């Protein structure tokens, strides 16, 4: 374990040396170390909460610290490359040359290729991955660059990313149960006034975001990050902005903030998840589907048909 120096609420340490967290704070660490969960004990993240609320067994299965046989699933290379490079270009542009390899591949007869299907493209991709870099096809890089320009053209979105730090990792202890918690905001304003969450999406229309946020659990995510920031910064940020941007031309961006009711609903679900996580850590019982009125035993469930099914039945009759 590396030596660290305490500075207020955060701990500073050379980024290439930090492999474990020993105290609550805000850290500038690589994303792979963050996702490996370097807390002293298994920690709870916003991404784990959705699985936890569905069935704690799912949460355990997807945790590198809780599941001894954990294997990170392989992602679709094309989508993974575009998403990863977009993230780097928007949030860490200074690392673009260091972390990204633009692949300009050719077929056997010397013609340019715009897919990963050719041997040349596969070889270049393998070499990039071996070197710890993100490979992306030249045609996809052009799309990412156009998207960056479209984002910069939105004055509000552009200002939201000024005066702060990108890709910092927050670690804190839960105020009620004491277990470790973590979060990795895309952007934290130096003033502590706001956090930003950059999302590439097929539809950034603000009118559609509420339903999308409910499906994706973004209300829980926002509440989780705001709580962690308040504990570590000593003040609650005024805003949690989702910077959404469409992945197809004209790459329209939109800045959206969930209202107080949504944040309170997310906090309520996070409180329930914290109770479940504490119970599972203490008991070792990472159970499956159970009635939350009695999480200690397996029971049968009684469910209803959805309202639309009853409406359809009434119409038929």
Element order: H for helix, E for strand: EEEHEHHHHEEEHEHHEEEEEHHEEHH
Tally the helices: what do you get? 12
* Cα end-to-end separation: 70 Å
Helical residue percent band: 40-55%
CATH architecture of the largest domain: Alpha-Beta Complex
User: What's the β-strand tally?
Assistant: 15
Major beta sheet summary: 5 strands, mixed
Keywords:
single chain, 317 residues, alpha+beta, Lambda Exonuclease, Chain A, 15 strands, disordered N terminus
Description:
A 5-stranded mixed beta sheet has the order 9-12-13-14-15. It has 2 domains: 5-72 and 168-272, Alpha-Beta Complex (Lambda Exonuclease, Chain A); 77-153, no CATH class. The chain is α+β, with helices and mostly antiparallel strands. Helix 10 (218-233) crosses helix 11 (260-283). The chain contains 12 helices and 15 strands. Strand 1 and strand 2 form a beta hairpin.
In short:
This protein is of the alpha+beta class. Helices cover 42% and strands 18% of the residues.
Fold blueprint:
Blueprint: E1 5-7, E2 10-12, E3 25-27, H1 31-35, E4 44-45, H2 46-54, H3 56-61, H4 77-91, H5 96-99, E5 100-103, E6 105-106, E7 112-113, H6 119-130, E8 134-137, H7 138-153, H8 155-160, E9 164-166, E10 169-173, E11 180-183, E12 187-189, E13 194-201, H9 206-216, H10 218-233, E14 239-246, E15 253-256, H11 260-283, H12 307-316
Parallel strand pairs: 4-11, 5-8, 13-14
Antiparallel strand pairs: 1-2, 3-10, 6-7, 9-12, 10-11, 12-13, 14-15
